[in-house]
Amino acid sequence: MRTLPLAAVWLLAFAVRVLYLWQIADAPFFGLRLGDAEAYHEWARRIAAGDWLGTGVFYQAPLYPYCLALIYSTVGESVAVVRLFQAMLGATSCALLGAAGIALVGRVGLAAGLALVIYPSAIFYDGLLDKTSLMAFLVTALLWLLVTRSGASGRRPWMRWFGAGAVLGLLTLTRENALILAVPVLVFALVTTRVRAHAVCFLTGLLIVLIPVGLRNLSRGGEFQLTTAQLGPNLYIGNRAGASGTYESLVVGHGSAADEREDATRLAQQALGHPPTPREVSRYWTARAWTAILEQPGGALRLFARKVAMTFGAAEIADTETQDVYAEWSGLLRVLNVFDFGVVLGLAAFGLVMSASEWRRLWIVYALAATYALSVAAFYVLGRYRFPLVPMLMLMAAGGLAQCGRVAGTASRILPAEAGRHASLGRQALLAVAAGVIAVLVAHVPLADERGARAAHYAAIATALASDPTRTRDVSQFYERALAAVPGHPATEFAVATFLSRSGRHTEAIPHYRAALALWPDHAEAHFNLGVALSSNTRFDEAAHHFAASIRLRPDDADAHLALARALVALDRARDAISHYEHALAINPNVAAVHNDLGTTLANEGRVREALPHFERAVALDPGNELARQNVAMARRMLQ
Questions:
Q1: How far apart are CA 79 and CA 71, in angstroms?
Q2: For residue 422, what pLDDT is reported?
Q3: How many CB atoms lie within 10 A of CB 476?
Q4: What SS3 string covers 393-442?
Q5: In b/e form, how buried is each residue of 53-66, taking b as 16+ CB within 10 angstroms?
Q6: pLDDT digits (tens, 9 = 90+) for 209-255
Q7: Which has more pLDDT, 579 or 151?
Q8: What is the pLDDT of residues 60-78, one digit of tens each?
Q9: Residues 300/303/304/310 CA torsion (nearest 10 deg)
């Protein structure tokens, strides 16, 4: 029976993942939600509180937050519970992949599921507060449904095709580029079964999942979008001139989920001259991406080739949290680390060559892997984005392992007089081994420096811990680790400087802000914060320079205009200061402090009649502002 070995795979996978969670449970960051995890958490809390539909067109894929909301509504918001739930989900993925392997190549196909059990990145992602675990579950479920389409004695095959469509729809609501997998699946349905009804069932399942999301976007955001509205910005990030092939924020130094949407919309609005709709934002960035590609086609082709290489590279390119940092607390990850993506790719290459004669049975796995890899390279590459390739590659490796068994059995039956057949089988095996070795070596060619990601991860941990006054020692240790990992790393320097400034240690923060700006000269917040730190040291001339730089980068930043105005007042440049006070009010006219400061500056310049309305407006906005009330009285006496 298949049930017993698959149950054993599930139990083993769950035990391995629980062991990993036990090992990292004492890590200082175990209870933290960093990067996207915090955004998903807040979103899920709103859903669990009753806001099931939300507002606006979805910008991020929505399925994972809704799954989190179900957990929150039933068992609470504990980080440990979420990680444990994902451990069960990951174990189920291993069992599903084992079942798909058995259906595809026989009993030896169970090896695919066992490989996923001990694959270190799978263990890491299952324990991460991120949607990758859910994505892996849906990918393995899709593979299982496709390769076991004729199961149960061939009864009701339409149910499997309908289920495959629904699963792909859910996968698309987890990772939008997965929708492209509908193309090879439809071809598979039409070519393999030659029954058009199966393709119709698949599309029906897909649309039944996606159309309600589109209608929700229409009702809440005014636009029919099947998934989300972030295609354009993502396309531009991965294909703009000078792109590295991995994630880089639209605005230097940004990168949070809130920043992504706000920056994309704000920059599009500046270019278009009016508040854009989500579709207009996406179209604006899509047009910019295509412009970059068409202006430098040679560079775009080289960039695409680099992204393909990164997609199949051994390195797990991280954005916020890195596997290496978690491995510092997990001996299990350290021991299994040798079994990386490069090794999986080598085993898949071996299997691809070894099972070449079985391509008619395995081609759907090849097609899915190739299609998904291209969809990743079309945008930008992160380790968690390319993770769906892993189960597909493991099935390819299992196909090669099964073929090895068949070849061994065939070789044992070849007569001595048939030496040519022995030689042919030997050449095939040698070629498969060579392909595997070459793939491993090529995959391990370094393409990205992971030290920067590790430094950023340390800094993110320290920044999150800084909100707890009892964790000061941990904060210092992680900032020190971040600075030691990559001296001068701009994200780390900025984080350290911001921490020092918030602690009132402005003088210590200044060199760190300068170090950040050395590599991030267009970081508006770094210029602004450095200006604040310099102002606290009465170095108003230098501060004014950095406030002006911040305004040049963010003309719509009212706080920067206000800070520059105050620095100019301190430099006895009142006339210049008045202009920036007025700019600040043009951006946000309802700030009492700005009205009061502008009124004071005007009064000091002898323009009391102009100052009085600003003092009065300050009182109207903040009735408890005693200084503004005194200024009103003073101005009225002077005018009398």
A1: 11
A2: 52
A3: 15
A4: HHHHHHHHHHHHHHHHHHHHCCCCCCHHHHHHHHHHHHHHHHHHHHHHHH
A5: eeeebbbbbbbbbe
A6: 999 999 999 999 999 999 999 999 999 999 999 899 999 889 888 87
A7: 579
A8: 999 999 999 999 999 999 9
A9: -170
